[in-house]
Design a protein that fits this description.
Helices cover 82% and strands 0% of the residues. The chain is an all-alpha fold. It has a single domain, classed as Up-down Bundle (Methane Monooxygenase Hydroxylase, Chain G, domain 1), CATH 1.20.58. The longest helix is centred in the N-terminal third of the chain and has 34 residues.
C-alpha cells in the first residue's frame, strides 16, 4: 500500500499518472472490443473507426511519458515511488502496443471473403479477444491497487490464450491446404489470431511491472518467483 507524502502535490502527481494510465487501459480495452465486433460482423466501417481511434492511445502515451519524466526530474522519487514511475512508463508502452494490435486486427478484416464459412475460426478468435479484454481490465485494476497476487493470476491466464491460438493455427493451416483458393482469408485470420496472442503477451508484461513495483524485481526468465 503506497504511503502518503508530506507534500500533497506529490501524491497528486502520482495519482494523476495512474489516472492517465487507467484511461489508456480503458481506451485499449475498448479498441479490442470494437475490433472483435468489427470481425464478427465483417464491418469495414467499424474497423476503420478502430484504426482511427488508435491515435487516442498514442496521444495518451506521449502525455504519460512527458508527465513521468517531469515527475522524475522535479520530485526525484525513491524506492517504490521510483519503481511506480518507471513501471508506469513501461506500462504505457505496453498499452500502446496493445492498441496497435487491436488496430491491426481491424486492418486485416478487409482480407476476409464475406462468403467464406469461417464461423468456427472467428468464434475462436473472438474467445481470445474476450479473454484478453478481461485480462487487461483485471491487470489494470491490479496496477491501480498494486495487487501483486491479482497481477500474477492474470499472468497465468495467458496460457488459455496460447492454447486456443495453437489449436486455431493448426486448424487454419489445414484449411489452407484443403482450400488454396481462399489462402488470403485464412492468412488474414492467422494474422488476426496472432494479434490476439501478442496482446496477451503484452498484458503479462504489465503484470510483471506490477510485481516490480511491489517487490523490486520482475519475473525471472518468464517464471513466477518460487516465493510467490
Amino acid at each position: 500500500m503506497p504511503t502518503k507524502h508530506i507534500v500533497k502535490s506529490y501524491d497528486e502527481d502520482l495519482n494523476l499518472l495512474k489516472s492517465k494510465l487507467s484511461e489508456m487501459g480503458k481506451e485499449a480495452a475498448d479498441q479490442i472490443s470494437q475490433a472483435g465486433k468489427a470481425l464478427l460482423n465483417r464491418d469495414g466501417g467499424l474497423a476503420d473507426v478502430v484504426i482511427v481511434c488508435d491515435e487516442k492511445v498514442n496521444v495518451l502515451q506521449q502525455e504519460v511519458e512527458e508527465f513521468g519524466i517531469q515527475i522524475l526530474a522535479t520530485r526525484q522519487p525513491l524506492a517504490q515511488d521510483l519503481r511506480s514511475v518507471i513501471a508506469g512508463l513501461k506500462i504505457a508502452s505496453e498499452l500502446e502496443r496493445i492498441a496497435d494490435y487491436a488496430a491491426n486486427i481491424a486492418r486485416h478484416i478487409a482480407d476476409l471473403d464475406h462468403h467464406l464459412d469461417v464461423d468456427q475460426p472467428v468464434a475462436a478468435i473472438l474467445e481470445m479477444a474476450e479473454l484478453t479484454n478481461g485480462m487487461l481490465t483485471d491487470v489494470m485494476d491490479a496496477f491501480a491497487k498494486i495487487d501483486v497476487q491479482g497481477a500474477i493470476a492474470v499472468w497465468h491466464r495467458d496460457e488459455n490464450i496460447d492454447h486456443i491460438y495453437a489449436d486455431l493455427l493448426s486448424d487454419l493451416r489445414m484449411r489452407m491446404s484443403e482450400d488454396p483458393d481462399n489462402v488470403r482469408s485464412f492468412t488474414g485470420l492467422i494474422f488476426i489470431a496472432r494479434c490476439c496472442e501478442r496482446i496477451g503477451d503484452h498484458i503479462t508484461n504489465i503484470a510483471e511491472n506490477v510485481h516490480y513495483i511491489e517487490q523490486g524485481k520482475t519475473y525471472i526468465n518468464g517464471k513466477v518467483p518460487l516465493s510467490q
